[in-house]
Amino acid sequence: MANRRDFLKTSLLGASASLLAWGGRLKAAAPAARPAAAVRVVSTWDFGIAANQAAWAILGKGGHALDAVEAGARVPEADLKNHSVGRAGYPDRDGHVTLDASIMDHNYNCGAVAAIEHIAHPISVARRVMERTPHVLLVGDGALQFALEQGFKKEELLTPESEQAWHAWLKTAKYQPSINSEVRDYDKAGRPGGANNHDTIGMLALDAHGKLAGACTTSGMAWKLHGRVGDSPIIGAGLYVDGEIGGATSTGVGEEVIRNAGSFLVVELMRQGRTPQEACKEAVMRIVKRRAEASKTLQVGFLAMNRDGEVGAYAIQRGFSYAVCDAHKQDALLPSPSVYTTNYS
Ligand code: ASP
């Protein structure tokens, strides 16, 4: 039987092995370079167009997918008109803007922050967690403390406009936390509009070196309970990347995505031979089957790209869109197929 000394020896060996892994980052076989035509970045929603362009400024010059998705995700994080990501994101029911973000490379290196306050670019803190700590996920005050130690600035992220929306919500909501999606309204041309109290930027990029990376960042559900964490910073739920297979990301009601390990499931389905679109559809159908009644009014969308740059998406409700940027087209916005084709089918 192992005595205490053996135990300590083994633990110390284990600890130095993980520190080595931390210092040296996880390494797998180098991926093969991709033809220029496969170099691509994709992002959730219409605000993905501007994010993709920032990512393409790096990818188009032969830069790395990881740098590209971080740069891209920072665009909606800084956009004051975007109330579901980063600064100006709608607060929780107590008026705190709490942000969730994750990042992952082709070698299973990943980092995330959840329920972090006062930091304008949580995606960059997530990357620091990945690159400068032996951990994957830091939350709340600990995440803030780490960000400050890393030189990030403490800022007020609640804008007057978001504060006004919160006060308006307080008048009618009776302090009930909000969870469900208010499925987007559409104008006559079928374009999404109207009030939506959540959305996330999920990005996937494939670079000229054949490397994949993904990023995901959000302020989560507006008016949520203080401390609520969605799918976006949970590796395997809101984001997953396997450099040998592909990557997936999600948007919509995070609780449903977490319950089904959504993005990991999409990647595993691609591993079994599904196309990105088939994989996204199957993951969506699991939620719909398991939550038959609730799924009529909630939204979940998956976006996936395989290691050859093929892209697919699928959502429960209509209105989910995704932006694609590559050497041919810089600002494409495509509608995702969905289970239901009218609002609240
Ligand atoms: N998935 C995000 C969350 O649950 C919200 C969204 O993408 O709509 O926090």
Number of helices: 9
CATH class: Alpha Beta
Number of strands: 14
The helix fraction, in percent, is: 25-40%
Written description of the protein model:
The chain has 345 residues and is of the alpha+beta class. The chain has a single domain, classed as Glutamine Phosphoribosylpyrophosphate, subunit 1, domain 1 (4-Layer Sandwich), CATH 3.60.20.30. The strands form three sheets. Strands 4-3-2-8-7-1-13-14 form an eight-stranded mixed sheet. Strand 3, helix 4 and strand 4 form a beta-alpha-beta unit. It is built from nine helices and 14 strands. The longest helix has 21 residues. The chain is 33% helix and 21% strand. Aspartic acid binds next to strand 10. Aspartic acid (ASP) binds next to strand 10.
Which secondary structure elements does this structure contain, and how are they paired or packed?
Layout: H1 4-24, E1 40-44, H2 48-59, H3 65-78, E2 99-105, E3 110-116, H4 122-132, E4 137-139, H5 140-149, H6 160-173, E5 185-186, E6 192-193, E7 201-206, E8 212-218, E9 239-242, E10 246-252, H7 254-259, H8 262-271, H9 276-290, E11 300-306, E12 311-315, E13 321-326, E14 332-335
Parallel strand pairs: 3-4
Antiparallel strand pairs: 1-7, 1-13, 2-3, 2-8, 5-6, 7-8, 9-10, 10-11, 11-12, 13-14
